[in-house]
Amino acid sequence: MDDEKILELFAEHNPQAIQEAQNQYGAALKRLAFRFLGNEADAEECLNDVWFKAWNVLQTQKPEHLSAYLMQICRYTAFNMLDQKTAQKRNAVVVELTAEMEQCIPDDAAQETQTELSEILNEFLKSLSKEKRIIFVRRYWYGDSIAEIAQALHCREGKVKTSLCRSRKKLEKYLKERGVSYERKEFAQVHDSY
């Protein structure tokens, strides 16, 4: 069943909407939740929350891309679960990805509205070559490891690390050019080991 029909089912408050969305996107969402939570039971709980939120929201909203919308709900839900369960000892993958991105997106950027920052990031991604965009999105949206990205793209891990480093530097410059600037902090060296 295509996204349009699934969204129609949600709008009609038809319980089949959840089943069809699970059939279409359940496996990918569970992998994403597990990647951040590292626990099968927590990933299942996260997925249940995703379906509950989708059920409540998609009756009145119609996102352009259902899969991206569900992934976003899943990511936020997983991060909220991490905050609640491990306030002091966050998942190593999330800590590493956050540290990497803090090098080019500062805390001060929170002053920008989420929509403005999203638009700037989308523009930035369009400026990258297809391969660099895939590497960047797989790392920072899906949380894929360096090894997983290299294997998927049939290249060496060093190439992926170099691409990510250059893309972060380019993003930092891109943000500064658009008025999102900040006092650069000293960061501990981040190793792309995951």
Characteristic key phrases:
single chain; 194 residues; mainly alpha; Rna Polymerase Sigma Factor, Chain: A; Arc Repressor Mutant, subunit A; 2 domains
Query: How much helix, percentage-wise, in residues?
Result: 55-70%
Number of strands: 0
The run of helices and strands is HHHHHHHHH
Structural class based on helices, strands and sheet pairing: mainly alpha
The first-level CATH class of the largest domain is given as Mainly Alpha
End-to-end span in angstroms?
Answer: 36 Å
What's the tally of helices?
9
Q: Might you state the CATH topology name of the largest domain?
A: Arc Repressor Mutant, subunit A
CATH architecture of the largest domain: Orthogonal Bundle
- Taking all Cα atoms into account, the compactness measure Rg is 18 Å
The tally of domains stands at 2
Estimate the strand proportion: under 5%
Mean pLDDT level: 80
Low-confidence stretches: 108-112, 182-194
Overall geometric form: globular
Walk me through the structure.
The chain is mostly helical and 194 residues long. Helix content is 69%, strand content 0%. The protein has helices spanning 3-11, 16-37, 40-57, 66-85, 92-102, 114-127, 130-140, 146-153, 157-177. α1 crosses α2 (16-37), α2 packs across α4 and α8 crosses α9. The longest helix is centred in the first third of the chain and has 22 residues, at 16-37. The two termini are 36 Å apart.
